[in-house]
Amino acid sequence: MSEHNQVPNLSTEKDFDGTSLCAIYTTTVTVSGGIAEHGRASGRARSADGVLDLSLGIPAELGGDGQEANPEQLFAAGLGACFHGALSLVARQAALDPAGISVDVTVAFGRDPEDGGYGLRVDLAVKWPGVAPEIAAPLLEKADSLCPYTRMAWQGTSTPITLIP
User: Fold this and answer.
1) Does position 159 have pLDDT exceeding 70, yes or no?
2) In 3-state terms, what secondary structure has residue 149?
């Protein structure tokens, strides 16, 4: 495995008891408005280190041309990558091969019936061929408790997790 593709050496233990978040990694992404002066409609997202640099646009379903990335896709990618990493970590600790794991993240953008504002619904579907549901279920729960994206989502956004055999 090349150095670029190293698996991070992260703990799954409750081995930190500080009084606030102890940052291990921090990033900044700047979104500017573009020609429409509206980040969602014609913006650009750039990370401080330049690794992420992409145009943003409105999906066709919302009246755009659907040719650029949108916030829901970016959120889904981040959540999926993070949950996949957490599940892979706990799978290895359980002496299971995580190679077959894939995570589908569906993000629905819509109106909140309680207040009429906008909201998100997030659904995760995990495919893990060859692993029985009774083996996978406690590992899905542990990955859910470790993944900061799902932790954030379930503190205010419904995030059902479904295992697809």
Assistant:
1) no
2) helix
